Amino acid sequence: MTGQVRTVDGRVAGRRGQATRQKLLDCLSEMLSSSPYRDVKVIDVARKAGTSPATFYQYFPDVEGAVLEIAEQMATEGAALTELLEGRSWAGKAGWQTAQELVDGFLEFWRRNDAILRVVDLGAAEGDKRFYKLRMKILNSVNNSLADAVAGLQAKGRVDKDVNPAAVAGSLVAMLAAVASHQKGFSSWGVKQAELKPNLAMLVHLGVTGRKPTK
Amino acid sequence: MTGQVRTVDGRVAGRRGQATRQKLLDCLSEMLSSSPYRDVKVIDVARKAGTSPATFYQYFPDVEGAVLEIAEQMATEGAALTELLEGRSWAGKAGWQTAQELVDGFLEFWRRNDAILRVVDLGAAEGDKRFYKLRMKILNSVNNSLADAVAGLQAKGRVDKDVNPAAVAGSLVAMLAAVASHQKGFSSWGVKQAELKPNLAMLVHLGVTGRKPTK
DNA sequence: TCGGTAAGCTGACGTCATGACAGGACAAGT
DNA sequence: ACTTGTCCTGTCATGACGTCAGCTTACCGA
Predict the structure, then answer these.
(1) Does A123 map to a domain?
(2) What are the backbone angles phi and psi of residue B58, rounded to the nearest 5°?
(3) B80 touches strand D (CB under 7 A)
């Protein structure tokens, strides 16, 4: 499954090469956190990694290509988000617990990877299929679980027939992602982190079950 | 209030100058719609506007500066979003109507300005105060109206005490913005535009009132 | 131990964008 | 026609981009 790592000109990368490659990725990651995407230059990344621009181009076609690589790594990590919802109940107090833990885990994941997720989001919004699919890959686990939950409740008649589970799940996930991206925004809007979370959890619970949580 | 339009080196711009300036802004706007933000170059904008890069730099310090200008224009337009909520009721059928019209108007506004809003969002997420304030300016009208609505219902005891109106309003607005940015995403997730809207409206209604809408 | 081969890196180069300036073109008033 | 101030562009130094040939290093079989 894991194809060999290759340079742009087709050579297979050995131990040393892979180390250099990874170092470049790490440095790029750092740069993305500290300066605007538009201002990230190959030459700076290379300098930071203690190598030359030519080396960068040996491993990646361009900055975008390297970003995709980082995002891909993160996406596989992101599969861990599934566990936030795997086998959880949405009924009664357990439901409130589920919602809270989902919000907590999701925000934490986003905070940890905010720089790269910003870029993925931008790429997806710009219509780039590669970023777009990547974003789906990251969010799919949560999205599907949520959609299943809604569909399940719907089958039991506890949620209206005319609700579209996929639409609701997608909207809730989009909300979580957007709030996570602009966490700082809220704090200067007079809403503290600690206050934000339970309110988000309530919205998620409301969206999934159609009812206020029992706490 | 509207200070005279000035060039970078301090001269006041005359009629012809303002026309050129505006043409540059329009062309930049177009470029943002058709190519990734990272690849938008001053030289391309200038060429498209039938002028030279030097002219661009006479009116704007850089691409970012010009983007801020466009966004500022859009922000004043965006004040019209207030009307979507001005004096509306959230009770009974009227509440459902309100939610629907809010979603409709918001999505339409975002669709019309998606290119520039993408960039504003990115800038804000990257922590740039200027973009950040601009984003607030655009969303404030809707956000405040929503927060007021929630606070009002709360005062009447129809919404729980421990709900934070600002947090809920902010989250809902973030959701609307995020969904609008990734509208295409939903369609390839098997959710059509027409289906999306009522589900979004339901979520908004749920979030504001804590109850399912009566249709 | 030695030489062959492929991996790994970089100096150097042509190309292009950036941003600054000085000076020419142009419109408006006299 | 002449002056004045606005407006635009040719030109230039600087620096990033992306490519290539060629040098160095590591590995491996004989």
Answers:
(1) yes
(2) -75, -30
(3) no
Residues of B in contact with A172 (CB under 8 A): 175, 203
Assess B175–A contact: CB distance below 8 Å, yes or no.
yes
Question: How sure is the predictor about A158, in pLDDT bands with cuts at 50, 70 and 90?
Answer: very high
Confirm whether B16 is domain-assigned: yes
* Rounded average pLDDT over B1-17: 73
Q: Are residues B200 and B104 in the same domain?
A: yes
The predicted model gives B132-143 an average pLDDT of 93
Of A19, A39, A61, the one marking the end of a domain is A61
Q: Is A114 on the interface with B (CB under 8 A)?
A: yes
The CB-side HSE value for A74 (13 A sphere, CA atoms) comes to: 27
Tell how far CA B150 is from the center of its chain: 22
Structure tokens at A197: 């979370």
B10, with CB counted inside 10 A (0-12, 13-18, 19+), is exposed
- Answer yes or no: do A191 and B114 touch at CB < 8 A: no
Structural domains of chain B, count: 2
- Our CA-based measurement puts residue B39 at a distance from the nearest CA of chain A, in whole angstroms, of 8
Nucleotide closest to residue A19 (CA–C1'): C8
Region A128-145: mean pLDDT is 93
SS3 (DSSP) at A13: coil
Backbone angles phi, psi at B91, to 5 degrees: -95, 140
A154, pLDDT greater than 50: yes
CA A196 to chain centre: 19
Pair A3, A108 in one domain: no
- The CATH number linked to B46 is 1.10.10.60
Q: How far is B126 from chain A (nearest CA, A)?
A: 6
Q: Is B47 among the domain residues?
A: yes
Q: Say whether both B44 and B136 belong to one domain.
A: no
Q: Which nucleotide is nearest to B19 (CA to C1')?
A: D7
- Look up the CATH number of the domain holding residue A110: 1.10.357.10
The mean pLDDT of B11-30, rounded to a whole number, is 89
B38: containing domain:
1-61
Is A147 found in the same domain as A76?
Answer: yes
Q: Is A210 on the interface with B (CB under 8 A)?
A: yes
Q: What percent of chain B has pLDDT over 90?
A: 83
Q: Is the CB of B12 under 7 A from strand D?
A: yes
pLDDT at A58 over 50: yes
Residues in B closer than 8 angstroms to A125, CB to CB, are 114, 118, 121, 181-182
